[in-house]
From TrEMBL:
Pfam families per the UniProt record, alphabetical: DUF6691 (PF20398), Sulf_transp (PF04143)
Subcellular location: Cell inner membrane
Taxonomic lineage: Eukaryota, Fungi, Dikarya, Basidiomycota, Agaricomycotina
GO cellular component, one term: plasma membrane
Keywords: Cell inner membrane, Cell membrane, Membrane, Transmembrane, Transmembrane helix, Transport
Identification of the protein by name: Uncharacterized protein
Transmembrane segments: 6-26, 47-64, 76-96, 108-130, 150-169, 229-248, 268-288, 300-323
Keyword Transport: yes
Organism this protein belongs to: Hypsizygus marmoreus
Principal location: membrane
Length: 324
């Protein structure tokens, strides 16, 4: 019987907010994992480094825990359908749980608030249709778990890399023009890998990588299987993200050069809402979104178990994104 993990999820949520905003400060990029994945599939070099960092973090987790992710409790057709809908929906709506929920809400983007609300509603509906047979949840586990302290300690390594990059970058000159600084390409690549690695470790600490926990959360408190861990994650991630965004946006000139790539807003149109709704259905089918999917793929590679389902889900995401 699984138990809610409020401490792990809360600290994991805080941990998620930090690489999101070091990437913003140094590279000027939104930490949107579905965007990274879709661009990487099309050969985007920086996106490949970000995806690689997340998979690498998952591999570290697999080595630490000496095993792969927990198996899905349903068949391959549902896994593939979930991945396809997540890929299609995230491409249409230009975001997922990281890009819209953590990054978008932290800058009070109305588009992201609408998208998050939409995919949450369709995720809840889907989970309640498909997964009402989940077993009751256990008592609260207020510990860090067997690997929590190691995951926290490991996050210090990529954070230290980002801090070194930040403190050794040339100071920003507040010029009168809006021309971006020339990109310091190797250092930007290092930051993409570093922030991806740190994000992956925080995801595992938060337990968002466990699909059953996500599905149990989407069942809501009226069900005996309801797991509030995801709410503790949000309680850790969102306040810190809101504060860091207001501080890190600064002059809107990345320390490592390149363009400031934060969206300035956009229309709340049918494409956004339909895409978010489709994403929510896929999320509610399997309890996995792009970040945890990449982490679990890394865990599977390192742990030698669950490679097929993890790879199949990601392949379906890729197909959905390409067809959007």
């Amino acid at each position: 019987m699984a138990s809610p993990t409020p401490v792990q999820s809360f600290l994991g949520g805080i941990g998620l907010s930090i690489p999101v905003h070091t990437l913003l400060l140094l590279n000027g990029n939104v930490f949107g994992i579905s965007g990274f994945l879709h661009r990487a599939i099309r050969g985007g070099k920086e996106a490949l480094f970000a995806v690689g960092g997340i998979v690498l973090g998952g591999a570290f987790v697999g080595l630490l825990e000496r095993g792969g992710p927990k198996p899905f409790g349903f068949g391959l057709p549902q896994i593939l359908a979930s991945g396809f809908l997540v890929g299609l929906g995230s491409k249409l709506s230009s975001g997922c749980t990281s890009g819209h929920m953590i990054c978008g809400i932290s800058r009070f983007s109305l588009r992201s608030i609408v998208a998050t609300s939409t995919f949450f509603v369709t995720g809840v509906i889907t989970a309640n249709v498909l997964h009402r047979d989940l077993p009751p949840i256990g008592d609260m586990d207020w510990t860090l778990g067997p690997s929590g302290k190691y995951l926290l300690a490991l996050q210090a390594i990529p954070l230290a890399i980002s801090l070194v990059l930040a403190f050794t970058a040339p100071p920003i000159q507040l010029a009168t023009d809006d021309k971006p600084r020339p990109p310091r390409t190797p250092l930007r690549a290092l930051e993409f890998v570093s922030s991806g690695l740190e994000f992956a470790l925080a995801l595992r600490l938060s337990n968002l990588t466990e699909s059953t926990r996500v599905l149990s959360f989407l069942l809501l408190p009226f069900h005996s299987a309801f797991d509030p861990s995801l709410a503790f994650l949000a309680a850790g991630a969102l306040p810190v993200s809101i504060i860091l965004y207001q501080f890190y946006r600064g002059s809107e000139k990345p320390l490592l050069g390149g363009a400031w790539s934060v969206p300035k807003g956009g229309p709340i149109d049918a494409k956004l809402i339909i895409g978010a709704a489709i994403f929510g259905v896929g999320w509610g089918m399997a309890g996995i979104c792009p970040g945890p999917g990449l982490v679990n793929f890394g865990r599977a590679l390192a742990g030698g178990a669950g490679i097929g389902p993890a790879a199949g889900w990601l392949a379906a995401v890729a197909v959905g994104g390409l067809l959007a």
